[in-house]
Amino acid sequence: MVSKEDIQIKPGKLFINGKWVDSVSGKTFDVLNPATEEVLTSVAEGDKADIDLAVSAARKAFEKGPWKKMDARERGKILLKIMELIEKNKDELALLETMDNGKPISETTNADLPLVIDCLLYYAGWADKIHGETIPVRGEYFNYTTREPVGVVGQIVPWNFPLLMAAWKIAPALACGNTVVFKPAEQTPLTVLRLGEICQEAGLPDGVLNIVPGYGPTAGAALAEHMDVDKIAFTGENATGQIIMRAASKNLKRISLELGGKSPNIVFADSDIDSAVAGAMTGIFFNQGEVCCAGSRLFIEKSIHDEFVEKLSDKTAGMRVGDPVDADTQMGAQVSKEQFDKILGYIDAGKQEGAKLVTGGERCGERGYFIKPTIFDAVDNNMKIAREEIFGPVVSTISFDDIDEMVRQSNLSIFGLAAAVWTKDIKKAHRLARDLKAGTIWINTYNAFDAASPFGGFKQSGFGRELGVHALELYTQVKSVWINLGS
Ligand code: NAI
Ligand code: MG
């Protein structure tokens, strides 16, 4: 195991055209450990001038560099090498992520890093399997299609899964032959900067991946507005998604958006109650609730409501919240003071709206952004805490006895990212899988992920699908070629 003392966190720079550089303005910003509120290091702060340099490096690498023209299998090999180096450094990366984000080391070690490694492995395998088709058109023609990279891709991610979101975005983009300008969240730039070093060591050509840490309204906006960027992939809050869409309209760049959620987690009386209790906890407390697909609306069938809430609340009250670096910790710190305050504000709103606070409902300890896992019972689906994304460890339970009415309420949300159903009745499970309006449906499980299975939203949870074969659609465009075989 790597311990806190073993890792040296050096000041972060921008990674542009294969070089580590200061920002044009010379400005830097501090990166905090949310569990201690201490400064971990400072990082160069990118802005429009740096984005311009990064985009021009990515453009040059795309048009003139070896990446796009390289044998596809060689591209795959470089991705595999990146994967191997991540694997070799996985303990260090897990610890760095934990210190930067506040999430428990058990989660970075057992969820984030394995999923990152899997994502690289999966898309390395795709690099030489992306091809077009031949089409039987009318007349004396031979018609075929090719799948080409989109070009220079801008990618903007949030702070909840910093390295994993980087893998989801960078791996398919590179496998398809694009070049990338990547902007991490200002709260959590450290692991992706380390990934930049790893990519360099793996032999990724200069300019193929550029990393520009900085703030949203400056560096992020400059990337989204840039006239020489061909596509933006964004994950984050809905209001930002709207800004990105407007900015992207300037040069009609392609966009894919993975936005918020208010996902229903539905428990029937005929489910295995203990599994469902565990699933309800994973659904909302994993990653301190800072998960876009968190099961934040817990629908419970009336006949088991009391028993279920009692079990859930006993287990929740016993959760170990604290030092994220401790291997036994189950829930760490919220990412920032801003998120901490926002969540406590929602908890106040829940109390004021008359929801019944069952457990939690306050900060935990005096230092660090820790919040006790919180359950509100007797919530009405129209309350603010049931409508808006809290992005914290706060679940709202809503009891139901009529299935159709429950499905109607489940779907009564601007979001549609995920939904889960707990039942032993196979017909009910499939019926709900059909009727729930969400991009992912989990039956008798929660937060199951695989690089091969698509992820993305219905409704205002966004559009475009990441992961799986579907991500190749985001990062390629189709060309149709006609050859006259007649006279
Ligand atoms: P955000 O959407 O503002 O930030 C995400 C990324 O977008 C960051 O890299 C940020 O720098 C960038 N960004 C911000 N403004 C931008 C702009 N004008 N142009 C281009 N890029 C911009 O999310 P934030 O403010 O960190 O979190 C606020 C709330 O959003 C959370 O409380 C949560 O409810 C929600 N959220 C949802 C996420 C999801 O995965 N669905 C992820 C993060 C936040
Ligand atoms: Mg914001």
From TrEMBL:
<dbReference type="InterPro" id="IPR015590">
    <property type="entry name" value="Aldehyde_DH_dom"/>
</dbReference>
<dbReference type="InterPro" id="IPR016162">
    <property type="entry name" value="Ald_DH_N"/>
</dbReference>
<dbReference type="InterPro" id="IPR016163">
    <property type="entry name" value="Ald_DH_C"/>
</dbReference>
<protein>
    <submittedName>
        <fullName>Aldehyde dehydrogenase</fullName>
    </submittedName>
</protein>
<dbReference type="GO" id="GO:0016620">
    <property type="term" value="F:oxidoreductase activity, acting on the aldehyde or oxo group of donors, NAD or NADP as acceptor"/>
</dbReference>
<dbReference type="InterPro" id="IPR016161">
    <property type="entry name" value="Ald_DH/histidinol_DH"/>
</dbReference>
<dbReference type="Pfam" id="PF00171">
    <property type="entry name" value="Aldedh"/>
</dbReference>
<feature type="active site">
    <location>
        <position position="258"/>
    </location>
</feature>
<keyword id="KW-0560">Oxidoreductase</keyword>
<feature type="domain" description="Aldehyde dehydrogenase">
    <location>
        <begin position="20"/>
        <end position="481"/>
    </location>
</feature>
<dbReference type="InterPro" id="IPR029510">
    <property type="entry name" value="Ald_DH_CS_GLU"/>
</dbReference>
<comment type="similarity">
    <text>Belongs to the aldehyde dehydrogenase family.</text>
</comment>
<dbReference type="InterPro" id="IPR016160">
    <property type="entry name" value="Ald_DH_CS_CYS"/>
</dbReference>
